[in-house]
Amino acid sequence: MPPPAGTGAGSASITGPLDIDPRTLERWRAETPGVRQRVHLNNAGAGLMPDPVVAAITGHLEREAQIGGYESAEEAAAEVGHAYEAVAALLGTQARNVALVENATVGFAQALSAFDLRPGDEIVTSRNDYISNQLAYLSLARRVGAVIRRADDLPEGGVDPDSVRELLRSPRARLLAITWVPTNSGLIQPVEALGGLAEEAGVPYLVDACQAAGQLPIDVARLRCDFLSATARKFLRGPRGIGFLYVSERALARGDFPLHLDMRGGQWLAPDSFALAPDARRFENWEFAYALVLGLGAAARYAAGVGIDIAGARARALAARLRTALTGLPGVRVLDHGRELAAIVTAEVAGWPAPQLVAALRARGINTSAAARDTAVIDMDAKRAATALRLSPSYYNTAAEVDAAVDALRSISG
User: Which residues pair with 101 in a beta bridge?
Assistant: First the structure.
C-alpha cells in the first residue's frame, strides 16, 4: 500500500516542479485507481491508466458486445477521428500525418521497411538504440547487406553529434535512426540537434519516441524527422497494444510506403497495379482494436489537459530525487549518464540480481522493473552491469512514494 504523506526517507524541502498545488495532485491521484493499491514506479513499462481512458476502452467493449464489432466501429467513427486529432495535437502535426499501429516497434519497423536498402547502404544510429531496433538493423545487415554505423558517445554519456555528422557525410548513408530516451537508462538524446544534421546531409531521419511520449514535449517540426514512432502505454498512460507513427509530408511526397502493404494502405486497381493511400494511413493495417484506439485518444486528451511540460518536469524531478537518494545508499551504483536525464532511474545493487529486487519490492507493494544485459548489450557492457533495477516515476507519484521505495531498497539490501 502507498505510504501516508510525509513518511519515508528524505525530509528535504520540496521545490520547483515537485512543489505543485496539492489539490491538483489529489485530483490526478483520485482519477488513477491504481495508486490506492500500490506504489507504481514502473511508468517506463506501463503507466497507470486514468479513469477517462479506462471508461473509453470499457465503454466501447461493452458496445461491441451489444451490437457487434464492425457495427460498433462504424458507430464510433467520429470518436475514432477525434483520436487521430488528439494524437496529432500532441505532435504538432495534422491527423493525416498520423498512422495508428499496434505498438511503437511495429511503427518503427513499418517506417524502416520503407527504405529499399541495398548491400553497403548505411544505417547511422547510436550505441543506445532500443533492443528491437538494434535487432532490426542486424536483421537487415544479415538479410540485405546493410551496414550499421554507430556513432561515438560523449564522455559524459549520450551520442556525440560531431560523430553523427561525420557518419552522415558518407555517400552510402541512407538513414539516421535514433532512440530519443533509451529504455535501459535515464539518458535523453539530443534529437533536435541530430535532426538538423540529418536535414543538412539530406538523409532521412527516424525517431523512436517510445519513452518520450507523455514525458517530453514533441514538436515534429522542430525535430525535422521523417518518421516518429511511439506507444500509448508508458508515460502517456494509455492502454497496452496500441501506438502511433508520425509520417512527414516529405516522406509522403517521396512515396514512402511499408514493405508489406495492407489493404488499409493501398487500393488494388488491377491484377498487377495498386495506388497508395494519400496519407499516413498507408502505414496502417486494416484490423484495429477500436477500444484501444479510443483509449489512446482519451489518453492523448488527458495528457494535453495535464500539460506535457508540467507532467514531464514533475516526473523528472521525482526521478532526480530518487537518483540522489539511491546514490547515498551503500552498495548501490546508479547507472544513468548523460547531460540531460529523463524520468527513468537505473541502478545496480551489489549482490542482488535486478529480477530478485523487483520481486522483493513488489511484495512490499512497490512496482519496478528490471533490465538485463541482453536488452542493451553495448550500454550494459560499457557499464559493467549484468542487470539493472529500473524505477520510473510519473507526475501522479508523490515524493513520499519515491522515498518509500528508497527506504525499501535500504531495508532489502541492508
Answer: 243
Tens-digit pLDDT profile for residues 307-357: 999 999 999 999 999 999 999 999 999 999 999 999 999 999 999 999 999
Q: Look up the CATH number of domain 16-48+307-413.
A: 3.90.1150.10
Q: What pTM does this model have?
A: 0.94
Q: Which fold has domain 54-305?
A: Aspartate Aminotransferase; domain 2 (3.40.640)
CA pair distance 314, 67, nearest whole angstrom: 43
Please tell me the distance from the alpha carbon of residue 407 to that of residue 410, in angstroms, as a whole number: 5
Determine contact, residues 336/186, Cβ cutoff 8 Å.
yes
Q: Rounded to 5 degrees, what are φ and ψ at 168?
A: -70, -15
Buried b (16+ CB within 10 A) or exposed e, 8-39: bbbeeeeeebbebeeeebeebbebbeebeebb
Phi, psi of 100 (to 5 degrees): -95, 135
Judge if 16-48+307-413 and 54-305 fold alike in CATH terms.
Answer: no
Domain residues of the chain, as ranges?
16-48+307-413, 54-305
